[in-house]
Amino acid sequence: MAAKVKKQSLGRQKIEIKKIENKSSLEVTFTKRRHGLFNKACEIGVLTGAEAAVIAFSPGKKAFAFGYPSVDTVIERYLSENTKEGGLVINTSTSTSHHRAVQESRREYVEALAKKEEETKRVEMLKEGGEVGFGSDRFWWDRSIEGMGLEELEQYVASMEELKKNVGIRVGELEKASNSPSRFLDLDSGVHAIENFSTN
């Protein structure tokens, strides 16, 4: 049996980095190196979760691009969320989708805060005897008594008497503050007529 002769190779050798003059060698080298570069970009994305994009133009002026997760995602993020400062690119957010989610949450928070403020004002008006939710120009005393039970009617009457008393107090305050003829509500007679009178 013949002894195996081991084929000797030159192995991996360092090549001189300079422009390749032979056109066919240049195209073959570009294709191989482009695939290697894209593989490295893919590996860094998969292994570390980094977002990467590589764009290369061939000697024939044809564009080739690779991106992880996609070229558009990486470029959009670069253009919209990074700032240049002293030539260095500083990352200001983790991802476009995360940024959008944060913006949406902020918008919802501001809307909820505005609604809360509106409701707080409405509750304060209700406590002061103002508007109830029957429309923008309706008040609690405009509510129909047709559907009220006995307990609700008693509460309604008590509220009306309280309102009558408060209106009487306010009319008295206004009469004292004014020395000119004024109008007043005859609250004691039960007649809601407005009469002119002069104070002497």
TrEMBL record:
Where is it located?
Nucleus
Question: Would you tell me the Gene Ontology cellular component terms?
Answer: nucleus
Start and end of every MADS-box domain? 10-70
Main localisation: nucleus
Q: Which UniProt keywords apply?
A: DNA-binding, Nucleus, Transcription, Transcription regulation
Q: Which residues cross the membrane?
A: none
Recorded hits in InterPro entries, A to Z, give: TF_MADSbox, TF_MADSbox_sf
Gene3D superfamilies linked: Transcription factor, MADS-box
SMART domains annotated for this entry? MADS
Pfam families listed in its UniProt record: SRF-TF
Molecular function GO terms recorded: DNA-binding transcription factor activity, RNA polymerase II-specific; protein dimerization activity; RNA polymerase II cis-regulatory region sequence-specific DNA binding
Question: PANTHER family, per this entry?
Answer: BOX PROTEIN, PUTATIVE-RELATED, MADS BOX PROTEIN
The name of this protein is MADS-box domain-containing protein
Q: Which organism is it from?
A: Salix brachista
